[in-house]
Amino acid sequence: MNPQLPLFPESASTLSPEVDALFIAWSAVSVFFTLLIACLILYFMVRYRRRSVDEVGLEEKSALWLEIAWSAIPLVIALAMFVWGTRVFFKLYRPPADAVEYYSVGKQWMWKFQHPDGHREINALHIPVGQPIKLKLTSEDVIHSFYVPAFRVKQDALPGRYTQVWFQATKPGTYHLFCAEYCGGEHSRMIGSIIVLEPRQYEEWLAGGPAGKSVVASGAELFNQLACQTCHVAAPNRPARGPALKGLFGSQVKIASGEMVIADDNYVRESILNPGTKLVAGYDPIMPTYQGQVSEEQLLQLISYIKSLAGDGGTQAPAEAPKP
Amino acid sequence: MIDTHGSGAPAAHDDHHHPRLQHHFDSLEQQKESSTLGMWLFLVTEIMFFGGLFTVYVIYRYAYPKVFAASSHHLDVLWGGINTAVLICSSLTMALSIYAAQINKRKLIVVFLIATILLGATFLGIKTVEYMDKIKHHLVPGFGLHFAPDDPHLQGANGQHAQLFFSLYFIMTGLHALHMIIGIGVLSVLAVLAWKGRYDSSYYNPLECTGLYWHFVDIVWIFLFPLLYLLGAHAR
Amino acid sequence: MNDTGMTTTPADTTVLPGPETGYERPNYLNAAYGLRSWLLTRDHKRIAILYLISVTVFFAIGGLFALLIRLELLTPEGDMVQPDTYNRLFTMHGIVMVFFFLIPAIPAVLGNFLVPLMIGAKDLAFPKLNLASWYVYNVAGLFTLWSIAHGGVDTGWTFYTPFSTHYSNTYVISAALGIFISGFSSIFTGLNFIVTIHRMRAPGMTWFRLPLFIWSHYATSLIIVLGTPVVAVTILMVAAERVLHLGIFDPALGGDPVLFQHLFWFYSHPAVYIMILPAMGVVSELVAAFSRKPVFGYKVVAFASIGIAVLGFLVWGHHMFVAGESVYIATVFSVLSMLVAIPSAVKVFNWTATLYEGSVSYQTPMLYALGFIGLFTLGGLTGVMVATLGIDAHVHDTYFIVAHFHYIMVGGTIMGYMGGLHYWWPKITGKLYPAFLSRLAALLIFVGFNLTFFPQFILGYLGMPRRYWSYPPEFQVLNVLSTAGASILGVGYILPLFYFIWSMRYGKKSGDNPWGAVGLEWDTPSPPPTENFHTIPVVTHGPYEYNTKEVHDRTSPPEARVG
Q1: Domain region containing A175
Q2: ipTM given for this complex
Q3: Best of A283, A289, A290, A294 to disrupt the B interface by mutation (most B CBs within 10 Å)?
Q4: How far off is chain B from A275, nearest CA to CA, in Å?
């Protein structure tokens, strides 16, 4: 039998100490109140034990002030817990602006990762210390959940949608990666490692392995392979039949129903797979669906490419603005 | 306490020995109040049951308004409207059967109960016609039933969302129809018992409780009809 | 009517020869013999016993699955069963325990037996519906047993989509149907209780003279009636989707898997209050009876039950903090979850205050009640911890959550159920059980329980996810401790099975009121006659009125007292 008896997990991210502080503080409060009740009970059991067969207790009038007190005090404590906990949660789930985006696709029963420069890994993710990293997650089949105890953070990976988790490692080492949402047969073997390296070692590791195309470059290649540019990019003899994609990502888009939506990851994904659903106002519903023709990883690459058009890279401006 | 609504009450039964008083109740009044409260509570469970379906419907309708409206176009407003009128009439006949009990008209109770049953059966018949039509036009979603609408608005990528609409259509109206079938079954039993003289002005609570159920089933349809049949109707 | 206001006197018991003469008075047990008299009974007391048998069978089945789970987890590698088998074990453990034990046990066994007695009625409002509810429960159970016999289901008791609708290769539909049908059983019981409590109280039994057991069961019934239909229709949609390949919850076909979670938890969160409120009702009765004084803050405790029922419907999203919902929605559910904890905390304080200046005795039922208070406090506080967003991000879907809910459901509900069984056993059977063995069992349960589940808090914070068949080796020691505890706990649960059955034949006669307790159920013989009361009582004061001459006269002689 393995003789190790760890009692507390390793702390390896910038926010782990905050979560631990929250946890320890409130464990202490919980233990305090449990012991308080237990001691009171034990004391009363002894002090007021029945001394004769017919003895009865002494009824007291109920005291409203007492009821209010022991409602209000726990309420205040619980609300304090809530406020502190929410602040930590917001930090845990709002990546900083300089976070670098990595990609992960979960499927039964493995984790597939892609670095921005194109490196692919399965069930392992090498990352550098000190770099905030946001991981865009999705699933190919059922719901999974990306969980790294050492970073104190987890996020479900959903089929058909993107979710996001971020972390910044503080200590080199190898940490458990678990799938934390039951996903069938080999759920407990859908595990892996997050390998945190010193920045220099990370560079060496990147250089050592087969370099792939960067995610954005892969996306650009796909964009042309799938002939997206024939509608979305105007050519001299052919106006664009689809909306301009440059600068699209992150902007507000008016769709046919009149509603305004934000062009985020999920919107772009939906537009590729189900073009008619949130059709941009003023355009005809002629875009074909690419469902079944692109994998989840390819979708991530296309989205990264489109996101990269937010700057001044890439394609020509489309011929006309959408009709009002 | 003897209930003497209306005229011509039959020989009054002493409440404590009323043949319909169950032994664990103290009075017919208590029994009546209990069974009525019980039926109301049951209807609350039904509201929550259908409520779950309405919630799913509202969420998807909000997500895919155009496809839902286009799908709704394939439901025949005429049949649906006739069915609505049929159900409302059946609620009237149901209420009239209770009135008949209150005025001690045994045969009239049976007449109105049968009228309610017939109207209910009419509703189900029209629903069958509508379902057959959907099958003919390949609008039934699900494995092996080949969802293939001719309408271009419902094809391609929108096909999935249209399937959502029709899934909800069949589940919601199907469950509603099931409730009607059960209701007709209960009404049939009541009609037989009424024929045998079970109900009179001193005791007609089962009719009232069944009436509550029947009215509820009617009200569910009143919500189903506009939500399923009339989406986007103003724009056509 | 004497000067204490009670018209039902123990005169009931002095009309006929007492138990000491060996003569057995007519009661509901000897009123009729034979299988038909039991299977076609409308007597709420007999139906309670029918339920007792059924829920015990399912508890044993669920417990067997738990044992197998803990055996597998003795070693880090999966080496006892296949991973698919393990997945079915924890799923069936959850389904059987939640739907066929925890939800029905106290209401259908103790509630059915006691609600009419405690309010002074002859039976529940709808006796035939009551019997129907037991049959429906068994039909539902058959579906579940059929699933088990055909290899079980592997979706987790939570049936998350799209795994349950499109990926699982097990008999999901029969298990889902079993749960769907059990919902009807539950609704029939809840409906019956609400109508009974509203309409069949004895003269003078106003709402604020009702025992807190009744308040708890009333609140529970409200939840049952409002919540169960939602999970019923959700399961129906899952079954329809699976059979017909619809896409209501499957994104590949246009649906939303998270919508399933919302619908599922909308019932399943209030369901946990269905499981705990009746146990709290039992504890109120036990604390009052074994301190011989009224529960402190009666009205507050009564309203707290209703408060828990109402607030319980507003917090379901706390099961989905990392499921993809927005941080803003998560914030709302977190703060509401804090609110729902307050009425429970208030109850704990009120029970503790009841002991103050009481006359406290340590008979077995009281041991369970006090154990409940301690364990429920810790379980409830860990609940507030996991409602705290920053903590849940880390511990969601780990053994921390498993420990939390087992503290409430086993340390809470099952202790409440055991305490209630031990308290009302003399009322139900007219017999006493061996005091030493019963206290030993209570001790084994308390120790075994803590050894089983406390290490799981540590495991969870370390990061061990739940529903894992194999785990990293460094988690082994804590798992071994947990399994050791489970074996002790198992022994603790088996003991009562033996001595309760033994007591029915060989137990000493208990007399009508061995505890010297106050309550309408104790004002009638033990076991009660079929019609409960020879004359319907007229109530003129509240429950738990121990400080009256009446009580002193009525306290049973020492020989009939349980040790």
Answers
A1: 9-40+65-211
A2: 0.89
A3: A289
A4: 7
